[in-house]
Amino acid sequence: MNALDKILIELKNQGYQQIKYSKLHGGINSETYLIESNSNKFVLKIYIENNINNINRLKVENQFLNFLNECNINNVPKVITTNKKHNWLLISWIDGEKIKKINHFLCSQLLDFLVNLQTYRNYESAINLPIASDAFFTMNNCLLSVNKRLIKLILKNQKICNVDKNLSLELTSFLKQNINNLSSLVNSIKESNVDKDYVLPLKDRILSQSDVGFHNIICKKNKVYFIDFEYSGWDDPGKLFCDLLIQPDHNVPLKYMQTLDLFVYNHIFKKNYSKERLFFMLELSRIKWSLIILNPILNNIDSSQENLKDLIEIKINKSKIYLKEGLNRIEFIKNQILKNY
User: Fold this and answer.
1) CA angle, 87 as apex, 86 and 89 as ends, to 5°?
2) Residue 83 class from Cβ within 10 Å (0-12 exposed, 13-18 middle, 19+ buried)?
3) What is the C-alpha to C-alpha distance for residues 248 and 6, in angstroms, rounded to an integer?
4) Rounded CA gap, 330 and 301, in Å?
């Protein structure tokens, strides 16, 4: 009996009858199913352990959704029931469609949601929320985190060499490029005399969905809903700003960058957050996301699989293109920041 069958039996024991189900999504982090019972709809999320990020995503999402419910935020799913032992969560179904085309309205709604979250940061339950995924509050720890990603890929590349030496050499070249990028970034910090061990104080951190973007938005009749909070928690506002603009697949188009003004004014440029720190985060985010693109190479990949070569080649090419295009994007963002803030 597989995991889904066991869950369906448990739901029946809890009173859910005439259950119908269909798979919505399956990835390296979770599987989601539409569950229908007695004319009601729900989403079932089954969390999958992986070797890239060992955070308890069920615990994080359950805690953050309950926090949002406490704050009377009604454009997010509600937790119905959960099973920590078997790593699944049942949440309310949100009717609507995924975003197909980004516009000014959607960008504004996204930023309004993120800014509105900060009005609840002083709630007692907010204090116990976890640190968001990939959130590090010193520049040095941010560097160490990206360096760990590099090391994992270097170790994986040793196995790839046994499959295809040419691909391994291509990946080696790409990784060396990012090692040089990191080295240049460290040197620029030294030259600017910025303290890379300075800890961003609690009062300047923000509440964040973390995995933020239009891929986690559902829209119906000009009403916007937000889903997927398994990486949420306390975050660095500069990191969130960078993820919004630098994330390779679901970023805010630069022509709508002005929708971020309220967030930038209220949550980044305080006395403890400098332009130098934000520019560092932009450069580091570019390197980080170029490595995240390669995650499928790391996770659950058997070096003997026939499609491994194609996978590696596709991901390396995408990462190379992203690194190049990211440079132009960052230059535009820097110029806008210097001009407006």
Assistant:
1) 115
2) middle
3) 37
4) 32
Comparing CA positions, the residue from 70, 76, 74, 77 lying closest to residue 122 is: 70
Q: Cα torsion at 285, 217, 29, 287 (round to 10°)?
A: -10
Question: Which candidate, 201, 273, 196, places its Cα nearest to that of 242?
Answer: 273
Phi–psi pair at 336, nearest 5 degrees: -65, -40
Same domain, 224 and 319: yes
DSSP string, 189-254: HHHHT--TTPPPPGGG-EEE-SS-SGGGEEEETTEEEE---TT-EEE-HHHHHHHHHH-SSSPPPG
Statement to judge: residues 67 and 214 lie in one domain: no
Q: What is the CATH number of the domain that holds 191?
A: 3.90.1200
Residue 217 sits in the same domain as residue 163: yes
- Among residues 93, 111, 132, which one ends one of the domains? 93
Number of structural domains in the chain: 2
Domain endpoint, select from 93, 125, 153: 93
Same domain, 81 and 214: no
Is 206's pLDDT higher than 60?
Answer: yes
* Rounded Cα gap, residues 241 and 231, in angstroms: 16
Q: How do residues 91-125 score in pLDDT, each as one tens digit?
A: 999 999 999 899 999 999 999 999 999 999 999 99
Task: Name the residue range of residue 74's domain.
Answer: 1-93
Mean pLDDT of the chain: 90
Residue 267: which pLDDT band, with cuts at 50, 70 and 90? Answer: confident
Task: Give the ranges where the chain is alpha helix by DSSP (H).
Answer: 3-13, 57-70, 104-117, 124-127, 139-160, 165-192, 237-246, 261-267, 275-292, 295-298, 308-340
Q: Report the residue count for the chain.
A: 341
* Amino acid (1-letter code) at residue 80: I
